[in-house]
Amino acid sequence: MKEENERQFHKVIPEIKSGMVFFTFCFLLAPVLHSLLSSVSTDSIYAMCTFFLLVYWTCFDYKTHWKGHPRKPGSNTISLSSALLAALCLASRLPDPYHTFALLSTAVTLLALWPALTRRFRNNGGDGAQICLTILSGSTILLTAWPIVYSGVSFEYRCIFLCALITSTLCINFVGPCYLLRMQKIKRTIHGPWDEAVIE
């Protein structure tokens, strides 16, 4: 038991070192990254950010996040680079380097580490772990969005927003996949002799 714990501890040490190196360099380079795009207009920054996020969503390797599909090294390079460039564009409009460091650290955590964590949950934990992770993600989003909406908005609009958020979360995470799985049962594949195309 002790040897197994030591083995697991030695597996974690390189990950901790990588994280410390990243956060140290990000903190040291935050003033440079903060002023990197200061001469670019705000409209151009927002346009570039939108473009980079679209590239991220388009090029993201969704297939390797499911069981049975091995992860290929470098499969998410374009998408991750685009997402970090979008975060860098937004960071250039923040008030000081500390905010830049916080935004870039959050971006790396959400865009690089979170997909790896969810993939590990899916592969090792099965369906129960996936459901727990979905509920945890939805609860976190609700708790995060509530203070944003809470300030300066009437109670009726807050209730409407909360209902819409809960409904969309349930539909996207539960109703849609259940409907898709039920539709798979009635899916038919047409087999048969096909007439060859004849060029006239």
From TrEMBL:
InterPro entries: Plno_GlcNAc_GPI2. This is Phosphatidylinositol N-acetylglucosaminyltransferase subunit C. GO terms for cellular component: glycosylphosphatidylinositol-N-acetylglucosaminyltransferase (GPI-GnT) complex. Belongs to the PIGC family. It is a multi-pass membrane protein. Pathway: Glycolipid biosynthesis; glycosylphosphatidylinositol-anchor biosynthesis. GO terms for biological process: GPI anchor biosynthetic process. The chain crosses the membrane at residues 20-38, 44-62, 74-94, 100-117, 129-149, 155-181. Keywords: GPI-anchor biosynthesis, Membrane, Transmembrane, Transmembrane helix. PANTHER family: PHOSPHATIDYLINOSITOL GLYCAN, CLASS C, PHOSPHATIDYLINOSITOL N-ACETYLGLUCOSAMINYLTRANSFERASE SUBUNIT C.
